[in-house]
Amino acid sequence: ELVQFLLVKDQKKIPIKRADMLKNVIRGYRGAYTEVVNQAGRTLQEVFGLQLVEIDPKRHSYILTSNLPCAEGNHPCRSKEKAKIGLLTVILSFIFMKGNSVKDSAVWEFLRRLRVHPGEQHEIFGDVQKLVTEEFVRQKYLEITPIPLTDPPQFNYQWGPRAAKETSKKDILNFVAKVQGKSPKFWSSQYNEA
Amino acid sequence: NTVMAAQMTDAHRRFLQVLMSKGITEASEARKLHHHCCETDKVYYAHDKLDDFISTINRHLQPLFMQIRKGMSEEDGRAYYAVVNLAETEVTKMASDYTEIELELFRKTMDLIILSENGFASSTDILNLADKLKTKKMKKKEAERVLKVFVEDKWLSEKNGEYTLHTRCIIEMEQYILSNYQDVARKCNICHSLTIQSQVCESCGIGMHLPCVRKYFKAQTEPRCPQCNEYWSYDIP
User: Fold this and answer.
1) Would you call A47 and B96 a contact, using CB atoms and an 8 Å cutoff?
2) Which residue among B13, B57, B64 places its CB closest to the CB of A3?
3) Which one of B9, B12, B15, B21 would you mutate to disrupt binding with A, by most A Cβ within 10 Å of its Cβ?
4) Domain containing A110 — which CATH number?
5) Whether pLDDT at A20 is above 60
6) Would A105 be classed as within a structural domain?
7) Lowest model confidence (mean pLDDT) among A96-105, B82-91, B178-187
8) Closest to A17 measured CA to CA, from A69, A62, A79, A82
9) Distance, CA of A194 to CA of B179 (rounded, Å)
10) Which of A4, A49, A74 sits opposite B10 (nearest CB)?
């Protein structure tokens, strides 16, 4: 039962809180919580190739990530999702290439060059600002933190914990290299980090 | 006796992950996917063993009350695969994606579709339903938006302003529909699966899927009901 609950929750890419797990499924078995969760984790791995990963040890929230080796080409998502993943990949790449942390103004300037504007409705993404600053953050792909003592308030954009688990700096660097037609080694400091 | 209790390999897991994320997969796509997964994860591949491959996965899904099920589209007669919940409880898969009022609209729409003669409900009728919901009245614009989402998410499909259940929905909810609409829901006389859009014999009341009708009458000189032998008065699709 817990396995199904986790699968359904994860489909929406929102992290699952331990409190929700306890409330909805485990209920009477409080004492055996760890055992039930471990068993569910084993089943998820064995049958689905998914891993239950704790991304926030303080608040006890989890996500499911695939632990199958990444396959070229057949990325399992519908076209709207594919477009979102595309946009996300581009943003993650930008952040990585710029040293893992970038100011919001730089990110939006970069996106503007790709004809993606925060104020306007994009034909595929709709409200881009909401998608990037709310949806991607809620799904833990991006982390946006305010920079103290800035007026008007500025923000730092970094990779979120799900991004770190679902892709790797190596993959992103290879992606950038492919797009630019150069060897990944061209960017020596990123290459060393990846 | 081949007690080769086949193990799950990464190829099986990958196949399952993709099937789950797509919601519904057409048979030829599934075969390509089977090939792709076996190649990617370096697992032995036999092109005609998709059913065995799926059986292995199903054996492991069974204790979780899940299954990869095969169904047929009533539109084109093609086979499709979907991962379904066997637990016969309410529309569980939908429950977490929609609000209470949206679910009510869906259930009432499903009533209309199943009780209809041809398996379709007009958008006008659905919008009238929206106005009479118990939870809260739904405005026309909101109902139109929700219907669009149901179509995008493959629970309903739309044709000429009329709505019927999407193949995915039928595969996933076949058990639920057969048990909750026992007196009304029909099974196809040829293939014995649930049928939503069916042609029904005027004399004896048996129903058949449109693609099944097409296949059955192809070999007949005169279209006659397989049950009562009366002349089949409908247009053969």
Assistant:
1) no
2) B64
3) B21
4) 1.10.10.1210
5) yes
6) yes
7) B82-91
8) A62
9) 55
10) A49
Is A53 inside any structural domain? yes
On whether both A108 and A55 belong to a single domain, the answer is no
What band does A72 get if pLDDT is binned at 50, 70 and 90? low
Q: Which residue has the tokens 């958008």?
A: B123
Please state, in angstroms and rounded to a whole number, the distance separating the CA atoms of residues B137 and B141: 12
pLDDT (0 to 100) of residue B111: 92
- C-beta of residue A126 within 8 angstroms of C-beta of residue A166: no
Q: Are residues A118 and A49 in the same domain?
A: no
The reported pLDDT for the residue numbered B2 is 45
Do the interacting molecules here have an ipTM over 0.90?
no
State the Cα torsion A99-A142-B24-B4 to the nearest 10°.
70
Q: Which CATH number fits domain B185-236: 3.90.1150.30, 3.30.40.10, 3.40.50.10860, 3.40.50.2300?
A: 3.30.40.10
Query: If residue B194 lies in a helix (H) or strand (E), which one and from where to where?
Result: strand B194-195
Q: Is A123 on the interface with B (CB under 8 A)?
A: no
Establish if A71 belongs to a structural domain: no
Which pLDDT does position A28 carry in this prediction?
64
Inter-chain CB proximity B36 and A46 less than 8 Å:
no
- Residue B48's pLDDT band (boundaries 50, 70, 90)? confident
Give the one of B17, B66, B93 whose C-beta lies nearest to A66's C-beta.
B17
Interface of A with B in 45-104 (CB under 8 A): 46-50, 66, 68-69, 71, 73-74, 76-78
Q: Which residues of B touch A (CB under 8 A)?
A: 8, 10, 13-14, 16-18, 20-22, 33, 36, 40-41, 57, 60-61, 64-66, 85, 92-93, 96-97
**pLDDT mean across residues, chain A:** 81
Q: Residue B146 above 80 pLDDT? A: yes
Residues 6+ apart with CB under 8 A from A110: A94
Averaged pLDDT, A3-26: 78
* Judgement on whether residues A120 and A182 belong to the same structural domain of the protein: yes
Same-domain pairing of A165 and A89 = yes
Asked if B174 and B193 touch (Cβ cutoff 8 Å), the reply is yes
Among A47, A68, A77, select the one facing B61 at the smallest CB separation: A47
Whether residues A50 and B14 touch (CB distance < 8 A) is answered with: no
Pairwise CA distance, residues B145 & B165, whole Å: 17
Taking residues A18-32, report their average pLDDT: 71
